[in-house]
């Protein structure tokens, strides 16, 4: 194997998290592998448990910390800087795009996302987490970023994505690839139309 594509595919690793193989080969060329300590299975199991549960809890805290930090850096004041003004900081850009439009902004590209969705062979109108992940990692974004996007896109928290949730996930991926930040919470204007009732039920 002269590249990491097989490992990336079989282990569902985001290409963005995979090391440069040529550089790794150069670093390891002088190493004596017979002197390496044997693999500790129990330790690996502990790490797997940490990745499955503890990291998720930590990731839920990161957006809040980023929001506080960004708020401190934001320019304050000015006649057009209040939250209600369409001229507010970042209004109409990135995640704020479409906030004042009557139609869900994701609809503009949904026909493309629907084609991708159908090619992934959904079952009963939904994609499993594993299938969705295999598609999302093609973006080459870090797993930490994709984890946040998944959390926002799986609106009904059933561990699967329907066509609207899948479209939302791809929309957020493209936002990040274009250099915009992923929001800590899903803005009201990005909630899929079929999930509006779900959010209302949660808030009540």
Automatic annotation (TrEMBL):
InterPro entries listed in its UniProt record: DUF5600, EF-hand-dom_pair, EF_Hand_1_Ca_BS, EF_hand_dom, EH_dom
Cited Gene3D superfamilies: 1.10.268.20, EF-hand
Pfam name, any one: EH
Single GO MF descriptor: calcium ion binding
EH domain sequence ranges: 109-197
The keyword rRNA-binding belongs to this UniProt entry's keyword annotation: no
Key words of the record: Calcium
UniProt-listed GO biological process terms: endocytosis; endosomal transport
Sequence ranges assigned to domain EF-hand in this UniProt record: 141-176
GO annotation, cellular component aspect: cytoplasm; plasma membrane
Descriptive protein name: EH domain-containing protein
